[in-house]
Structures are given as structure tokens and as C-alpha cells.
């Protein structure tokens, strides 16, 4: 149980990341990902990368610049404009996707953005490598320092269902209402390179 802890990525490297040692058992018709990040980076960086044999960017949560988040599903992306905000505050994000409509919902600090769509009818593969803090350009590899995350990541969750606004608020408090595939209260992970778990 990592409640109250954060993963610290202290510097820009091409070999420091967190490997999440869990993945869905079945292909996904729906998914949700939530996490909290804290950084003063203004260049592009990757927060959550889920790669399969057939698709590097099967699921990717990327922040290309201040004021924008981008979610990739099956290699195609959809962008959400967000307030730039103060860099001295952590940001909590949740994204959900459903295959039947392709609709993506996105929340920043519990506030929902207008819904958008991508990859209607797609099925997300399940034999995945899940990485925090780097973008996979090949399974568990192909990392570039220029896309590396520097700062703190915590409160990471992934589900095989869509979330409601109520679920998002519960996840922000680390009290998920639905059982996740993996989550911060029971988080199987391995750090690679220079990443530290700190209170």
C-alpha cells in the first residue's frame, strides 16, 4: 500500500522509469487511467505508457506542453486543452475510453473536459508492458531523455471499465469505488535506473 508515498524521478535520463508489474488478463473494450503528477517541466513528457507487441502507443498519456494533455489509444490521439495553472501544484488526471463509441472522457483535478472521440470499435491488447515516466518506442525500450518525466508521480490506477465523476473523486482520495487492475493501495512495481519511493 503506497498511500501517502510518491515516486520521485529526480533527473532527465533515458533509463529511469517505473515498470508496473501488472496488466489486464483480457483485451480491453473500456479502460480508465488516473494518476497525480507534480513537475515544473514545460517540454513534452510521458506519464503513462502501455505498449503491446503490435502497438507501442496502445495507451499513452502524454503532456506535450503546458495547457494540453494527449491520450493515445491504438496509436491515434485526442488532445484536451487545460488551464496552464501554477507549476507549484500537483495535477490529478483521469482519462476513460470506451470502444463502442470511441468516446474519451478527461478530468483534471476532478473537473471534466468536453468529451471527444478516438478509435471507435478498437480493442486494446492485453499482453502489455506498462511504464511510468517514459514513452516506450518499443516494448519496454526505445526511451528518449527528451520525453522523460522529471518530478513526482503518485496515486496511479488503471481499470477495465469507464469511470463516473463520482469514481474520479474517489480515486483522487485513494478510495476507489471499483476494483482496479492495479492501483496505489496495492501497487506491484519495480523501479529502473534512478527513481525513488519517498513519503
UniProtKB/TrEMBL annotation:
Belongs to the pentraxin family. GO terms for biological process: innate immune response. GO terms for cellular component: extracellular space. It is found in: Secreted. It comes from Crypturellus soui. This is Pentraxin family member. It comes from the Eukaryota. The gene is Crp. Homopentamer. Pentaxin (or pentraxin) have a discoid arrangement of 5 non-covalently bound subunits. SMART domains: PTX. Its cofactor is Ca(2+). Binds 2 calcium ions per subunit. Signal peptide: none annotated. The keyword Signal applies. Pfam families: Pentaxin.
Amino acid at each position: 500500500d503506497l498511500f501517502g508515498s510518491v515516486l520521485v524521478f529526480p533527473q532527465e535520463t533515458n533509463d529511469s522509469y517505473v515498470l508496473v508489474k501488472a496488466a489486464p488478463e483480457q483485451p480491453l473494450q473500456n479502460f480508465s487511467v488516473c494518476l497525480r503528477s507534480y513537475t515544473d517541466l514545460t517540454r513534452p513528457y510521458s506519464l503513462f505508457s502501455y505498449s503491446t507487441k503490435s502497438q507501442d502507443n496502445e495507451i499513452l498519456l502524454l503532456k506535450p506542453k503546458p495547457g494540453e494533455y494527449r491520450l493515445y489509444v491504438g496509436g491515434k490521439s485526442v488532445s484536451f486543452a487545460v488551464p496552464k495553472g501554477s507549476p507549484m501544484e500537483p495535477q490529478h488526471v483521469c482519462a476513460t475510453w470506451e470502444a463502442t463509441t470511441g468516446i474519451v472522457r478527461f478530468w483534471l483535478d476532478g473537473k471534466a473536459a468536453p468529451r471527444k472521440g478516438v478509435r471507435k470499435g478498437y480493442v486494446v491488447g492485453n499482453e502489455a508492458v506498462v511504464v511510468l515516466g517514459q514513452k516506450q518506442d518499443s516494448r519496454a525500450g526505445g526511451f528518449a531523455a527528451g520525453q522523460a518525466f522529471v518530478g513526482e508521480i503518485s496515486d496511479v490506477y488503471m481499470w477495465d471499465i469507464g469511470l463516473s465523476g463520482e469514481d474520479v473523486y474517489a480515486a483522487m482520495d485513494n478510495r476507489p469505488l471499483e476494483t482496479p487492475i492495479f492501483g496505489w493501495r496495492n501497487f506491484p512495481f519495480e523501479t529502473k535506473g534512478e527513481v525513488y519511493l519517498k513519503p
